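wait is this the right file?? whatever heres the structure
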């Protein structure tokens, strides 16, 4: 006797990633309309074991039984040996965790990846192109393993990291400091429960430019991307939208920056990282290409095909850039300017938490607020054009996945 337990599937054209879904009330004939991949976990009462079956193995049987739900269909199969999917999904989500590295005793120092270990201490912050993260007390840590499961941010900007025996190096972060003189607040997105993270720098020789519908996109050949999730960081901005980065062949990925807001990126990100020059507003395509090959532009390849993202708004207080949540898990935080701050966390009351961050004002310039407001008003009157800024709103950026084990 077969009994339905739960299902994990990937929706068609909706909510990327794998999701834990309840299909108990659905007609089995409708499952193919909703999911392009679906694993159904059942209990085999005869052998007293759990197993999973795949939608792709039973499409025809499901389609020819439109009046049945999954429980009724399983009852009709009691005399048959069902085929195992070969994959057994977990029944709970695993999440990326935001790590505030200073709370674990990790300090940052001026660094140069091209220098040997014994010369790093001689560097001054005014002459160091990189930033090195090292524990202040323990000296035999496996920095390579840490780097394999993390993405690092500096003042909300994503940076590519390289591990050595003497620490983790954030490439180009030192030059950003030299130019902007902002205090450095470094965080890490911990993917340990989801899979290894590999970063691939985006260089000119990697990009093949393609013209389509009057616009441009770039294709890149990447090896070893089968069964993995691919994101992209463009000049420090983390992008996960499947319309921006997507696979078109077994080893080929396309970056489409049609929806990349050039003016928004330049006006906000130039305060924290080195950005291309933008002096002529008609040269957006040139800016996109330069941003795409910046020091902090790279592919993010996660060794897990099941990743999805949910975004939950946080209560925003007026001062001092405090966000409020009752969620105890430390999800990454994203602001409406696209940056990922590393907040200071203060707990109070029962399940109450304040998340204070340093990125402060979200700059909104007149041309970003243009449009008719139901009258002849050309500009949004809610923005002071002499001081075009507003306090940032925040969201929990929940990167999640499920475990997929061979069975």
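ok assuming it is, sequence goes like this
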């Amino acid at each position: 006797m077969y009994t339905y337990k739960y299902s994990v599937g990937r929706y068609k054209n909706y909510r990327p990633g794998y999701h834990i879904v309840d299909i108990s009330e659905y007609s089995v004939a409708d499952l193919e309309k909703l999911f392009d991949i679906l694993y159904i976990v059942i209990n085999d009462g005869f052998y007293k074991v759990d197993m999973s079956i795949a939608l792709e193995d039973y499409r025809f049987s499901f389609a020819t039984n439109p009046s049945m739900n999954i429980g009724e269909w399983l009852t009709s199969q009691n005399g048959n040996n069902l085929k195992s999917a070969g994959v057994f999904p977990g029944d709970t989500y695993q999440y990326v965790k935001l790590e505030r590295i200073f709370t674990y005793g990790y300090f940052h120092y001026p660094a140069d990846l091209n220098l040997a270990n014994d010369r790093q201490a001689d560097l001054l912050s005014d002459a160091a192109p990189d930033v090195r993260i090292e524990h202040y007390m323990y000296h035999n840590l496996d920095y390579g393993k840490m780097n394999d499961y993390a993405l690092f941010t500096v003042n909300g900007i994503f940076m590519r990291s390289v591990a050595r025996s003497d620490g983790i190096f954030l490439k180009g972060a030192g030059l950003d400091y030299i130019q902007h003189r902002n205090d450095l607040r470094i965080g890490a997105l911990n993917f340990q429960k989801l899979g290894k993270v590999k970063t691939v720098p985006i260089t000119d020789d990697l990009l093949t430019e393609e013209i389509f519908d009057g616009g441009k996109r770039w294709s890149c050949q990447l090896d070893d991307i089968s069964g993995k999730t691919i994101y992209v960081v463009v000049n420090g901005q983390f992008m996960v939208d499947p319309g921006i980065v997507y696979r078109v062949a077994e080893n080929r990925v396309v970056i489409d920056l049609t929806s990349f807001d050039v003016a928004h990126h330049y006006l906000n990100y130039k305060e924290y990282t080195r950005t291309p020059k933008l002096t002529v507003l008609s040269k957006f395509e040139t800016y996109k290409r330069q941003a795409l090959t910046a020091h902090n532009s790279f592919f993010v390849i996660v060794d897990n095909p099941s990743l999805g993202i949910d975004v939950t708004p946080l209560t925003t207080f007026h001062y001092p850039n405090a966000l409020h949540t009752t969620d105890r898990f430390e999800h990454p935080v994203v602001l409406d300017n696209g940056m990922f701050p590393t907040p200071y966390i203060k707990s109070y009351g029962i399940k109450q938490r304040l998340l204070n961050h340093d990125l402060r004002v979200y700059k909104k310039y007149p041309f970003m607020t243009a449009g008719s407001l139901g009258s002849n008003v050309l500009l949004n009157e809610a923005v002071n054009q002499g001081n075009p800024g507003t306090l940032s709103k925040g969201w929990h950026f929940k990167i999640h996945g499920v475990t997929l084990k061979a069975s």
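The first strand starts at residue 2 and ends at 11. so i think its the right one actually
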